[in-house]
């Protein structure tokens, strides 16, 4: 590996670590700013001040917020996510029971969305300004503009209510077989696929179209080379860098974007766990789940940068 590339990778890793640190601080500040606390949630509004104060001492909430954050950060760096305030279970145990469901959902959507979006984007660029291109542009613009939860409710209304083909509640568990899990997760996967495919199709088409205006592509056209061969042999190799960026960034969004979809379909993943914990003011669980999402997002962004630099050597020497 060239020294310049290694130096850039190390620099990205350092910036990624700083980003995760900043996110952990923002998460703590956000949870601290919420009204109420976990003791009030557990004991009710009618609990006496003495009981609430005793609960604060038991959960170590009587210490200043910055001291608790530094203590949590030190434990986190050692791999200790702490224990839940509400049920006393280890946060790592709670996350371990949900993380597989979330990654299954994201992986299933990615396996469908990535090849489909890249193929449609290339075809739209190949048949630019045709009815097919205009149709793809309309579909992708609609997909980008419509919020995820709206797509989820539309799909639920069509395929779970009007046409009861799939369950509206995606209640999966470890005892399910693979195909049972796929069936139960069909609507959440379809929602994520539609949401992420639209952006990838638009960016893939834009990357190919911009390259088709290059002089060497014009020369290939003048030589009589077929359009599909021009795209596959000449345009795509030079378009891999922006396409990789788009794919990896959308995969990063996919992992984080499951939060809304999990809540809508009551899917037992990390997103639903984090939202439930926010309502309960269960800070260790909120911090643990949010850090998982943040770490995955930063790592995928780092991977996108590295793959882009490998596919396009010019990116290794920024001006």
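Sequence proposed for the structure above (319 residues):
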């Amino acid at each position: 590996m060239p020294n310049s590339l290694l130096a850039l990778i190390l620099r990205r890793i350092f910036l990624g670590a700083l980003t995760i640190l900043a996110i952990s601080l923002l998460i703590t500040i956000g949870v601290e700013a919420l009204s109420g606390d976990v003791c009030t949630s557990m004991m009710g509004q009618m609990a006496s001040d003495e009981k609430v104060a005793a609960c604060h001492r038991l959960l170590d909430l009587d210490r200043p917020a910055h001291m608790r954050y530094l203590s949590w950060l030190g434990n986190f760096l050692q791999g200790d996510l702490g224990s839940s305030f509400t049920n006393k279970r280890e946060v790592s145990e709670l996350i371990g029971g949900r993380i597989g469901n979330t990654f299954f959902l994201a992986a299933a959507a990615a396996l469908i969305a990535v090849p489909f979006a890249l193929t449609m984007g290339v075809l739209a660029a190949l048949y630019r300004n045709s009815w097919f291109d205009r149709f793809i542009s309309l579909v992708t613009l609609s997909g980008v503009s419509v919020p995820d939860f709206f797509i989820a409710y539309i799909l639920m209304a069509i395929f779970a209510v009007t046409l009861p083909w799939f369950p509206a509640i995606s209640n999966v568990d470890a005892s399910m077989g693979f195909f049972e899990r796929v069936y139960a997760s069909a609507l959440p996967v379809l929602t994520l696929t539609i949401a992420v495919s639209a952006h990838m199709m638009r960016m893939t088409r834009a990357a190919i179209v911009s390259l088709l205006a290059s002089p060497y592509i014009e020369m290939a056209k003048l030589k009589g080379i077929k359009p599909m061969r021009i795209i596959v042999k000449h345009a795509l190799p030079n378009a891999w860098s922006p396409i990789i960026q788009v794919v990896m960034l959308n995969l990063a969004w996919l992992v984080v974007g499951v939060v809304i979809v999990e809540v809508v379909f009551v899917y037992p993943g990390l997103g639903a766990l984090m939202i439930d914990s926010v309502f309960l003011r269960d800070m260790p669980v909120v911090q643990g789940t949010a850090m998982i999402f943040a770490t995955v997002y930063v790592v995928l962004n780092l991977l996108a940068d590295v793959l882009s630099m490998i596919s396009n050597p010019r990116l290794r020497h920024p001006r």
